[in-house]
Amino acid sequence: MKKTNNKYLYRVLSKGGVLSPALFADVLKLAEEASNKHVLLGSRQDILFDLPKDATPKIEGSGISIQKRSSGLQNVVSSYVCVDILPSTNWVYSGTFLKILDQFTFDHQLRVNIVDPRQNMVPLFYGQINFIASDVPNYWHLFLNLKDGKSPESWPGLVFTEDIAEFAAKLENLILVDQLKSVNELSTALASTNLQKNTLDKDSKITLPKGFFPYYEGLVKMDGKSQYWAGFYWRSNQYPIQFLKEVCELCMKTNVGKISFTPWKTFLIKDIEAKDKKYWDELIGRYGINMRHSSFELNWHLPLLDKEALKLKRYLVSEFDKFDIRTFGLSFAIQNKTAGNFTTVVIRKNGRLPFLGRFDFTSNYSVEHAYDFNPNSNHYLTFQSRLSKSELPNALSELTKRYYARLFVQKNPEITGRQKENKGAKRLVHQCSFCKTVYDERYGDQLADVPAGTSFVLLPETYCCQVCESPKSTFNELEITEAISA
Predict the structure, then answer these.
(1) Do the beta carbons of residue 320 and residue 398 sit within 8 Å?
(2) Taking the mean position of all CA atoms in its chain, how far away is CA 11?
(3) What are the pLDDT digits (tens) for 88-105?
(4) pTM of the model
């Protein structure tokens, strides 16, 4: 929790990342009355600002929760923000999400996600309880992601739309109070309830969304509609309250009903009428807002209020701009933890003396990428490790070349002579039980001079994890897939 001048950082849990302009204006008023000039946006689609230490903030009649950042309570995340902007399942509309979100009447300690699998902005498995739209109208796949580094477990049945909130509440109680951790245990516990009786047998599969990461900034015409959407990004993640107040006023003036937030710490306005576009152009121009940052600038996820991470990002963006390195289709994160990733590439800071902060002389960096370069695969491979800051740009440049080479192979199997892989096929890899690094024999381990195609059993007994140096004996077999069966 951030403490500043006897103030603490509080989070506004905007369910599903959706607020009306009037309600957002009330939130901004609360922040401004506490002498804040800016608010921050969080990766759980929440809004953060400082309040006095013993504050008990509340907006009457709003139904939203405002909690200290240290409370451990989690916002419900949804892909409402993507509707009408990105591809979507044919029965999922804005109203579908709003109907579900209205069912959530209490705060969760576990991360709950409600997403459409056809979009690629909001991660599918970033939550611990993940509801994912199926092809059957009004029914959702359920995946539990309770064990770091393991594939999410699929629930044996599809969940009815109107049961989602109650399902999430029952599951959280069984997981946290009764300490049940597996799908088998949880489904047995719910077997006699009406919730389980309302589930639908399933034989469909989820295909993980692929394609380039969406560009979520600018004033852009909506596909197939006469309206526009506007996406706003602040490099420092410090959004001026005065500007946001004017955004709310303009939304109310032009009958825009909702403001939505992304996990990338940005916000979007949808359904702007063509006749009102001039007002948005004027507002953007008056504040001198840059609406065309490069994709490499936008597609980053950084720890909140981490000045060192922001400084590293700026350095890397500058280096990539200097050498004109292409990153389209990739997303990047700077992380210290081994869990909670949802980007294509992760830059992780390592060191044996982390309590020394920037004075840790043992610090170095490793670069990891998502399996098959798809962050929804939930598994990461180490590309290079023990790198200095100055070595990072070259390592990332080499990784982008590998990504585009792989993309070419996937799109041109007749040229490369490679057969398209069976998306539903399972693969056996080996994972370090300590840092979760994956050894995949298709790639080998270039850091240990192990060529591609080398089976794990043929590795010498002296082989060790190239990230944490754990011995070969600490690796466990792990079965993963490109597309996860529902």
Answers:
(1) no
(2) 18
(3) 999 999 999 999 999 998
(4) 0.81
Q: Would you give the distance in Å from CA 370 to the centre of its chain?
A: 13
Strand residue runs (E) in 37-138:
38-41, 47-52, 65-68, 77-78, 112-115, 129-133
Domain range list for the chain: 3-197, 218-294, 296-416, 426-481
Q: Name the residue type at position 113.
A: N
The edge-to-edge listing of strands for the beta sheet with 228-232 is: 18-19, 259-261, 267-272, 228-232, 218-221
Segment 155-206, tens digit of pLDDT: 988 999 999 999 999 999 999 999 998 899 999 898 877 776 667 776 667 7
DSSP readout, 442-475? TT-BGGGTBPTT--GGGS-TT-B-TTT--BGGGE
Highest mean pLDDT among 35-44, 50-59, 290-299: 35-44
Q: Give the orientation angle of helix 21-33 with respect to helix 241-253, to 10 degrees.
A: 150
pLDDT at 413 over 60: no
Residue 357 has pLDDT above 70, yes or no: no
Token digits of residue 339: 């869990």
Q: How far is CA 28 from CA 63, 232, 242, in A?
A: 16, 17, 9
420, pLDDT greater than 60? no
Q: Locate all alpha helices (DSSP H) within 228-382, ordered by sequence.
A: 241-253, 277-286, 295-298, 307-322
Q: Across all residues in the chain, what is the average pLDDT? A: 85
CATH number for 218-294: choose from 3.40.50.300, 3.30.1360.120, 2.40.50.40, 3.90.480.10. 3.90.480.10
CATH 3.30.70.1150 applies to domain 426-481: no
In Å, how far are 101, 141, 197, 199 from 136, measured between CA atoms? Answer: 20, 10, 17, 12
**pLDDT tens for each residue of 2-42:** 455 678 899 999 999 999 999 999 999 999 999 999 999 99
Rounded CA-CA distance 226/146 in Å is: 43
Cα 230 to chain centroid distance, Å, stands at: 21
